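ARCHIVE CARD
CATEGORY: sequence design from structure
SOURCE FIELD: tokenized fold
FIELD CONTENT:
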């Protein structure tokens, strides 16, 4: 789940430096080592370091203007020290390029902050790139994802944007179907004209026809003047018909006619109007099943699905969760002037393993709620609503012997590694009938280390 990116650790104490290095290496990060403080900036440049973790009290011994020099090289800094950020950091450091973590050091909070810095670096690199090809995590500043399903979706959107063919976007509620439609419009040569969305399920049936095609004065009670419809507003642009699976049969016929003849009649008029609008439709329903049940016209279905695309649900792109969380945290912190630093590792693990029936919209709502309630600091499992606390048992994690096949729905690496370690500990204790000294020997650990792990993990030995 962790983003790629090299980390350099600067600390005056070798013991603490080795501890942080070992911890982050275990979590999957790539650590860059250095021996000569005088060559630190060369190391950052040559090794393409993206994040520097530094002890504040040690920076001035390296260079009096270390923070200013670091800003010119462009890594993000995670600064560790005593006191608050405002008290300890000089003015140039109080920016989005710096993250502050007070002493004494908490490794779980450090990992959460490093993860946030990694995602922030990824998004910042995108913002400064010449084009989307230099950073594939974001499409049109709105769709976020680094998982394989999302990368395939990005490639599809970029390809079909060049055409004028109708597109049918399918996916569960909350997956971002309108964002995909907007991205297609923004990448097309119609982007200078209107993108006109219509939620077919939100407008009463007796008003939807007028909303789509407009009406002439006197065509019905309350029609006091001519009114342009959404099709006319979308001329030379894009019309997005959301939840088209809820459209009634009589309107389906009229939509079919527009697709076939490129013209429509306003309500109350007998004069057809020509229109050049690209149609993008979306639904969370299975239109093929609706065709079989005669609730949706077969000819309209084939007209709409010239190019069908499917937005994957969040449970099939779990590695995007941390990237999405960072994006939402940044936005909601800015909107509400709060300083929530991120989610603790345990809290993030639970969110990674939750099934997300409401998809990205549900995740966005959760992050907003947490920012409102938390104000500052890290969000822990104690802060999460109860339904998210069962996340650790909702997705299977590998047991020994571990399979080398990645589950289709993805997996949370932290949970998998933790479960693997727990399994080894349990087996060692079972084999030694609970003798911790002998179990520690089997695991090549000190007895005290094993005891600390048992306490931290809250493991209870049960001999089967």
């Amino acid at each position: 789940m962790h983003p790629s990116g090299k980390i350099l650790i600067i600390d005056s104490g070798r013991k603490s430096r080795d501890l942080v290095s070992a911890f982050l290496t275990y979590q999957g990060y790539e650590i860059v080592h250095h021996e000569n403080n005088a060559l630190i900036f060369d190391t950052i440049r040559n090794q393409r370091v993206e994040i520097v973790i530094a002890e504040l009290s040690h920076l001035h011994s390296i260079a009096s203007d270390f923070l200013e020099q670091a800003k010119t090289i462009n890594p993000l800094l995670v600064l560790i020290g005593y006191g608050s950020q405002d008290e300890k950091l000089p003015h140039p450091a109080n920016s989005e390029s710096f993250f502050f973590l007070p002493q004494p050091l908490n490794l779980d909070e450090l990992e959460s902050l490093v993860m946030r810095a990694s995602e922030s670096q990824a998004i910042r690199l995108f913002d400064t790139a010449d084009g989307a090809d230099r950073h594939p995590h974001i499409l049109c500043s709105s769709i976020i994802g680094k998982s394989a399903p999302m990368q395939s979706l990005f490639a599809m959107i970029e390809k079909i944007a060049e055409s004028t063919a109708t597109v049918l976007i399918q996916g569960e509620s909350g997956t971002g179907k309108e964002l995909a439609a907007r991205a297609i419009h923004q990448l097309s040569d119609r982007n200078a004209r209107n993108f006109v969305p219509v939620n077919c399920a939100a407008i009463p049936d007796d008003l939807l026809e007028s909303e789509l095609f407009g009406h002439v004065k006197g065509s019905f009670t309350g029609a006091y003047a001519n009114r342009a419809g959404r099709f006319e507003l979308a001329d030379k642009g894009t019309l997005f018909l959301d939840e088209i699976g809820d459209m009634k049969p009589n309107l389906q016929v009229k939509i079919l006619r527009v697709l076939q003849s490129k013209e429509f009649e306003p309500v109350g008029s007998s004069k057809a109007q020509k229109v050049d609008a690209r149609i993008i439709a979306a639904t969370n329903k299975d239109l093929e099943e609706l065709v079989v049940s005669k609730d949706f016209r077969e000819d309209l279905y084939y007209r709409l699905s010239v190019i069908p695309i499917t937005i994957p649900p969040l449970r099939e792109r779990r590695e995007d969760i941390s990237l999405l969380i960072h994006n939402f945290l940044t936005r909601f912190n800015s909107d509400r002037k709060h300083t929530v630093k991120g989610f603790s590792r345990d809290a993030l693990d639970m969110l990674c393993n939750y099934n997300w029936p409401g998809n990205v919209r549900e995740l966005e709502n959760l992050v907003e709620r947490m920012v409102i309630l938390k104000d500052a600091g890290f969000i822990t499992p104690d802060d999460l609503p109860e339904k998210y606390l069962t996340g650790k048992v909702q997705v299977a994690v590998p047991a020994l012997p571990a399979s080398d096949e990645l589950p289709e729905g993805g997996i949370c690496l932290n949970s998998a590694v933790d479960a693997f370690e727990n399994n080894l500990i349990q087996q060692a204790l079972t084999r030694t009938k609970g003798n911790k000294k002998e179990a520690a020997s089997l695991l090549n650990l000190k007895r005290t280390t094993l005891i600390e792990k048992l306490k931290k993990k809250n493991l209870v030995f049960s001999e089967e």
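CARD ANNOTATION: The longest strand covers residues 49-55. Residues 90-95, 125-135, 391-403 have pLDDT under 50 and may be disordered.
SHELF: design records, drawer C
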